[in-house]
Amino acid sequence: MLTLIHAPQSRSSRIIWLLEELGAEYEVRYVSIRRRDGSGGPDDNNPHPHKQVPALLHNGALVTESTAVVQYLTELYPKSELARPPGHPERGAYLSWLAYYAGVIEPSGSAFLSGVAAGHPPLLKIYEDMCLHVVETLTKQPFLLGKKVSAVDLLLVSALTWMRKLLPDSSVVDQYVQSMTARPALARARAVDSKPDGFHD
Ligand SMILES: N[C@@H](CCC(=O)N[C@@H](CS)C(=O)NCC(=O)O)C(=O)O
User: Which residues contact 65 (CB under 8 A, 6 or more apart)?
Assistant: First the structure.
């Protein structure tokens, strides 16, 4: 059994979306987390070493970090077309974007959005290069890997639906977000995402 450790409207919401895309059987363990507004707090029911989400439990194994959870789950469901298996012509691009999401998009985007990058030209350059790379890619093709959607689109769009200003104004990005958010699996995921009755942060 797969158990997703989840806090509503957080980075674990994207994993519910993925689980729905995969048609996986899973249960959700709702936990509280420290929220930016000072609400919430660490939850003893959360096995994550930093009491963050997402965390995934599978047959006694704990998986943390969004990109690792994405990789783990897509490997469990190899028939899904959201990953690119070894030998696939888009395998290199797939792994590159997965690592780029965790190593460049999120950290440089956070540095920009928090204002930290504004006072640090090298950081700002990393952020601007990232924006250029993403927008140029989506101008050439509908998805990050080409003509077909993948789990890296799901990661990026989950961040954009939460914080559109992660990337500059661009009709290409807006169209991309629109096409991804129309997916039926996301509507199902949003229903699961909400807090169950009686749950409080
Ligand atoms: N790099 C981690 C980041 C996880 C993360 O920051 N999660 C936030 C929710 S969006 C959290 O749990 N915050 C609570 C805390 O940091 O205590 C990942 O992508 O899985």
Answer: 102
Checking if the pLDDT of 201 tops 70, the result is no
Best residue among 4, 12, 32, 33 to mutate for probing ligand 1, ranked by most atoms within 8 Å of CB: 33
Residues of the chain with CATH 3.40.30.10: 2-82+185-200
Superfamily of the domain at 2-82+185-200: Glutaredoxin (3.40.30.10)
Could you please state the CATH topology (level 3) that the domain comprising 91-183 is classified under.
Glutathione S-transferase Yfyf (Class Pi); Chain A, domain 2 (1.20.1050)
pLDDT, tens digit, 9 for 90 and up, residues 110-132? 999 999 999 999 999 999 999 99
Ligand 1 site residues (CB inside 6 A) read 10-11, 33-34, 51-54, 65-66
Give the distance (Å) from ligand 1 centre to CA of residue 141. Answer: 30
Report how far apart, in Å, the C-alpha atoms of 91 and of each of 84, 86, 88, 134, 138 are.
Answer: 5, 6, 5, 18, 18
